Structure formats: C-alpha cells, structure tokens
Amino acid sequence: MRFLFVRRQKNGIWKRQRRIRTYENHHIYGAEMAGDFLREFGYDKTKLELVQKCILNHRGSKVMEKQSPEEICVADADSISHFDAVPSLFYLAYVQRKLGIDDGIDFVKNKLNRSCPKLSERGKEIYKDKYEQVISLLV
User: Which of 35-44, 87-96, 112-121 has the highest mean pLDDT?
Assistant: First the structure.
C-alpha cells in the first residue's frame, strides 16, 4: 500500500513538472497526447487528425487560422473557460504567482480582456453579458 502511495506521489510530482515545462506548448503536447490516446482505441485516422487540428489551433495567443466549426468551437471554449473559472485565475495570481492584491486583480482583468477579443463573432455575441458582468466585479 505504501509503495502505491509513493508511486502515485512521484507520478503526481512528475506530471506537475511536465505540465509546467509544457505550458507554452500545451497545444502541441495536448494534440500529441490526444493522438496517442485515440490511436490506442482505434479511432478513425481522419477524425483523429481533425481532433488534433482543433487542439493545435485552439490557442488565442498563437494566432492560427481556424477553418472548421469544430476548431472555432474549441478555441471559443478555451477563451470562455476563463470567464467561468475566475476563482482559478485568482488562485493562479495570488497563490502560484504570489502577486499582491492590486497586481492580482490586474492580472485577472488583463487575462479576461485578452480573452474576449479572441472569441469568434458568435462567441462575442453569446458571452458579451457575462464578460461585462465579470469585468464589472473587478473594477
């Protein structure tokens, strides 16, 4: 039993370190992981490639042309997730980055202000009210 706990703990630490190292390229790493996973389960090659393309093109900070509705949807979901995860953004600011009160608020506000323009036109329409509500709390 102790061996399993130690093994899990080491795996957890290893996974965390890997996550930190791959943050800047998480779109590439995620597409590779999805490909490995889907191949293991015999997923159709054409569909597998479409899934990988969605993951590769989802990042707003890496401007890549989104050609399919699925790519647009995944990219919008990535940006929208910031508005639905404001507490985790504060955790990132205050706990992980150890920012002060004002700097933490600015960090979260800036993240949200960068996320909104990255939405598709349809995504901007749908999330306009939520964006305004969240931003109004941070002023």
Answer: 87-96
